[in-house]
Design brief:
Elements (H helix, E strand, L loop, with lengths): L1 H5 L5 H5 L19 H29 L1 H20 L4 H29 L5 H26 L4 H7 L2 H10 L7 H6 L3 H12 L5 H14 L4 H19 L6 H12 L5 H17 L3 H6 L1 H19 L2 H7 L2
Helix pairs in contact: 3-4, 3-5, 4-5, 4-7, 4-8, 5-6, 6-7, 10-11, 10-12, 12-13, 12-14
Length: about 325
């Protein structure tokens, strides 16, 4: 998001001012002529894409999972980088910039959600602040790259650099855990426990894992019956992996099969229905944000912070200061 926000600040002369060195420049394939209005569209269409990406992002993260949405979101940045780096006209530049905005909009919504749900409670605020720090670091890096790549045809490399972090994320995100909160909200209780254990590391005690998992289950509307079932399933899985059922091969195989079996007992099926009903009852609607005082006040505070940020003029500085 930060890199794509500031990347178009410096290369305008190289991209669009085709008559600055005489008539021969008009035939330069690395120059795409644009007047002030056309350049303004190129800059601001990024924000239009951001709105289009942000609006459905929350629902997509609920349906598909936070990690999966972030992984798929890299496609938008890959398309953006390729279109802008190989553009031969305004239409391709516009399309690439729009795709970059789409990816930025999705990431702006889903990434803070993912970070908040995987971070320990004591570090949640710091991790959220780190996200903001990295955004402005992206702006800074785009300005630094622009110092060396704001010429013809180097501007193509500059606009195409957004591909690099996308490729890195495509390989790195599959190694990351899905958030325990999302897994629990979809009834994947054993997977939620497994994810939390992986996130907190082997040094975490069982008591601390159970305590945090209890808070997650409670927030997701998981019943005590279902939570207990997940604990039993985890214990069985751990026993199977450690071979505590004895050295007899058939006994170990039976233990592993029992541990790997999904929670499909009558008690667990009822627990899943209880979980779904409780989650539905706890679901917050858009109207609740305005009708419930406890939600309306933080909503107003967040809204005013965003308004103040825009009125400060920082976007004009990021996009047009050079």
């Amino acid at each position: 998001f930060g890199f794509n926000s500031g990347v178009i600040n410096q290369p305008r002369q190289a991209i669009s001012k085709c008559d600055d060195t005489g008539s021969a420049a008009m035939e330069d394939p690395n120059c795409i002529p644009m007047d002030d209005w056309q350049w303004g569209i190129f800059v601001s269409i990024f924000l239009l894409g951001g709105v289009a990406g942000a609006l459905p992002a929350g629902q997509l993260a609920t349906w598909l999972g936070r990690r999966r949405v972030l992984l798929l979101n890299n496609v938008a940045f890959l398309v953006a980088g390729l279109l802008q780096a190989q553009a031969s006209g305004r239409a391709q530049l516009y399309a690439g910039r729009l795709a970059a905005g789409l990816g930025a909009g999705v990431g702006t919504v889903v990434l803070p959600l993912y970070l908040a749900e995987v971070a320990p409670v004591r570090l949640r605020g710091s991790v959220g602040s780190l996200n903001q720090l990295l955004i402005v670091t992206g702006v800074l890096s785009s300005q630094l790259c622009g110092l060396f790549l704001s010429s013809r045809p180097a501007w193509r490399v500059l606009l195409g650099l957004t591909i690099v972090p996308s490729v890195l994320q495509i390989f790195a995100l599959p190694l990351c855990e899905e958030t325990p909160s999302w897994l629990a909200s979809h009834g994947l209780l054993y997977d939620a426990r497994k994810s939390l254990v992986a996130l907190r590391g082997p040094q975490s005690s069982t008591a601390s894992i159970d305590g945090e998992l209890g808070d997650i289950f409670s927030a997701a509307g998981v019943s005590g019956v279902a939570a207990a079932a997940s604990t039993r399933h985890a214990d069985a899985q751990a026993a199977a992996e450690q071979g505590v059922y004895g050295s007899n091969g058939s006994s170990s195989a039976l233990a592993s099969a029992a541990a790997e079996q999904p929670l499909l007992g009558g008690e667990d099926v009822a627990a899943r229905h209880t979980t779904s009903a409780a989650a539905a009852a706890r679901r917050v609607t858009a109207w609740n944000l305005f009708s419930i005082r406890a939600l309306r006040r933080p909503l107003f505070a967040a809204f005013m912070l965003q308004v103040a940020q825009q009125l400060s003029g920082i976007n004009a500085a990021v996009y047009y200061s050079s």
